């Protein structure tokens, strides 16, 4: 099961992404908004693996030296093929890239790290919808478009997500 380290969004960015989730649902698509769990929130995944040993958590906390990072959401990106993941890119800043690289360095020996999470391969993004059928991608992109609105804010902390136990906790 997945274990991850995730950067949370401040309230205005969180609301903007949730608005996109709602517009996708209104268009008849399965957005992240259909997940009703309290822990379901917009985030940027910094690291993911099959397991994250508890003994690395103190080192992980120590490497997260910034509490807030300025974040700017960019255009819509599509990952996958027949069934795609629709996401909003996060414009990579030096601060964001450095944070992700430090987190990766601490956790680099964890089992089951996908290649796309390695520094230099990582694409920062906020997921809008998963399993979008290829025939509905155009509809999804149109539904996700933000009205004339600035999508700049900041991070609001870093959390750990344990997909097996279905629980989260803040690291910062």
From TrEMBL:
InterPro entries: Cyclic_Pdiesterase (IPR009097). Gene3D superfamilies: Cyclic phosphodiesterase. Pfam families: 2_5_RNA_ligase2. This is 2'-5' RNA ligase. It comes from Rhodococcus pyridinivorans SB3094. The lineage of its organism: Bacteria, Bacillati, Actinomycetota, Actinomycetes, Mycobacteriales.
């Amino acid at each position: 099961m997945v274990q991850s380290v995730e950067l949370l969004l401040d309230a205005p960015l969180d609301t903007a992404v949730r608005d996109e989730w709602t517009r996708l649902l209104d268009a008849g698509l399965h957005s992240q908004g259909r997940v009703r769990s309290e822990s379901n929130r917009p985030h940027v995944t910094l690291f993911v693996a099959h397991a994250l040993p508890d003994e690395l958590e103190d080192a992980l906390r120590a490497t997260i030296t910034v509490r807030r990072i300025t974040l700017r959401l960019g255009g819509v990106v599509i990952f996958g093929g027949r069934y795609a993941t629709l996401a909003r890119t996060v414009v990579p800043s030096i601060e964001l890239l450095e944070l992700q690289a430090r987190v990766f360095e601490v956790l680099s020996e964890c089992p089951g790290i996908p290649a796309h999470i390695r520094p230099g391969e990582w694409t920062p993004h906020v997921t809008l919808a998963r399993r979008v059928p290829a025939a509905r991608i155009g509809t999804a992109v149109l539904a996700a478009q933000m009205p004339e609105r600035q999508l700049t804010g900041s991070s609001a902390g870093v959390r750990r997500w344990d997909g097996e136990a279905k629980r989260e906790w803040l690291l910062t």
